[in-house]
Amino acid sequence: xxxxxAVLIALLTAAPLAxxxxxxxxxxxxxxxxxxxxxxxLRSAELDSLFGQLQSAEASKSKTIEEKIWAxxxxxxxxxAELLLGQASRxxxxxEYDAALAMLDELLKAAPDFAEAWxxxxxxxxxxxxxxxxxxxxxxxxxxxPRHFGALAGRGMIYMALKKPNEALAAYREALTMNPxxxxxxxxxxxxxxxxxDI
Length: 199
Prior knowledge:
Elements: H1 5-19, H2 39-56, H3 59-73, H4 79-93, H5 97-110, H6 115-127, H7 131-144, H8 149-161, H9 165-178, H10 183-195
Helix pairs in contact: 1-8, 2-3, 4-5, 4-6, 5-6, 6-7, 6-8, 7-8, 8-9, 9-10
């Protein structure tokens, strides 16, 4: 495992786990006036607003915005999918990896467009040191949600574990373009840049 991996794992999983089983209906200030929109369209509009706020937020306010983004990613049109994601997240936190994997596999069969389910399974595979499978799931997350800073940071962690620091630095830098307030990632970039001033 890479140095400081525990800090980064906490960064990438604390917010989603806090949301598990407690999905918020907060719309982050997005107006729902006028023509009725689908839940997916409302979530998309909310994300656009939240990411705009995140880019210009002061550090003291960024955590609240980040938590709202994680809450948004944890929502689905299916209440069952949300519940299963929460159960899998709790199993993951308890290191009940077989149970978590079984639930996430089932969830992804039923809801293959649920980006956060792919992200949780990528996190699980990382913790199981199944790095190739984790990277494949991260690719799927980013296909569905290109701004997923958690998945991008996770890609950096995997490349560090695989002793590919140049690739890790690129992934971490991309994560920071989406969320410039990730302290663990900022520190990882500083360490890598110190060792590689030419990159």
